[in-house]
Amino acid sequence: MRTLIVNADDLGINPQRSHGIFEAFEFGIVSSATLIVNGSDSETAAKHAHERKLPTGLHWNLTEGSPISNAADVASLLSRDDAFLDRHQLRRSLDEGAIDGTHIERELRAQAEWFLDHRREAPTHVDGHHHIHVHPTIVPLAIPILLRYGIRFVRLPIEPLPHFGWEIAPERLEAAKAISAQAEAVRPLYEENGIGSTNHFRGLALVGSASKKNLRHILARLPEGTTELMVHPGSANPTGSEFDRDPQRLTELAMLTDPELPEMLWERKMTLGSFGEW
């Protein structure tokens, strides 16, 4: 049996991304999303996810925008303008031991509380913006928070690489391999605390390489069990970040709403699902 969880990251980061995710849920194969709680559209997205019954996890974010906590209470996570360090600065600071663990715990807990207050139910699962939730410094701090709020599933972005369906830029491939290896290393920490994940994961190789053809390549080769597919659809946003402006957001939206996909899934005996359903 094959179960596919198509999870759209970054719900709430801005209205255009939220719009694309809801469209891919209503008219495509997106079956789950993770909500970022400090985005410009987070509150509206949380409300609409509740109304539309979109299974929603928490997208922990320590690398973009401003914290939910008071800046003074999480100072080691922030740059001089009180915004989060970017992903490269954060990872470097974590590796150097320059981040106060209390600040990490405080902000992760504040984001979980915000989710509960606004989404009005517990997250189906947790993953991390730029995969910060698999950094070895963060995992031991995150686990007690997951247990406290009854969150029993986490994304483990462990993907067989290199991917043989298409060419991937060397620098992107090396970054994906590093994330995958880090996730593999911390898997036992999550598992020994009763925090599970899917049997398989796909999506690292699809970032920057999304297309209907490449999605079909992935789907045609899904192994038995439950697989999470990470995606990043969105509507057009000419004033957003570089990631938002990338035509890949619209390409992913078209890819995920391809009207031929449901029949392909049915023919291959694949079922769409969400975290916690198996």
Strand % is 5-15%
Q: Major sheet: size, sense and barrel closure?
A: 7 strands, parallel
CATH class categorisation: Alpha Beta
Low-confidence stretches: none
What is the β-strand count? 7
Structure description:
- This protein has 278 residues and is an alpha/beta fold.
- The chain has a single domain (2-272), classed as TIM Barrel.
- The chain is built from ten helices and seven strands.
- Strands 1, 2, 3, 4, 5, 6 and 7 form a seven-stranded parallel beta sheet that branches.
- Helix 1 (15-27) packs parallel to helix 9 (248-256).
Topology summary:
Layout: E1 2-11, H1 15-27, E2 32-35, H2 42-52, E3 56-60, H3 87-95, H4 101-119, E4 126-128, H5 139-148, H6 170-191, E5 200-202, H7 212-220, E6 225-231, H8 242-245, H9 248-256, H10 261-267, E7 270-272
Parallel strand pairs: 1-2, 1-6, 1-7, 2-3, 3-4, 5-6
Q: What would you say about this model in short?
A:
This protein is α/β, with parallel strands linked by helices. The chain is 41% helix and 13% strand.
Characteristic key phrases:
single chain, 278 residues, alpha/beta, TIM Barrel, seven-stranded parallel sheet, 10 helices, 7 strands, globular
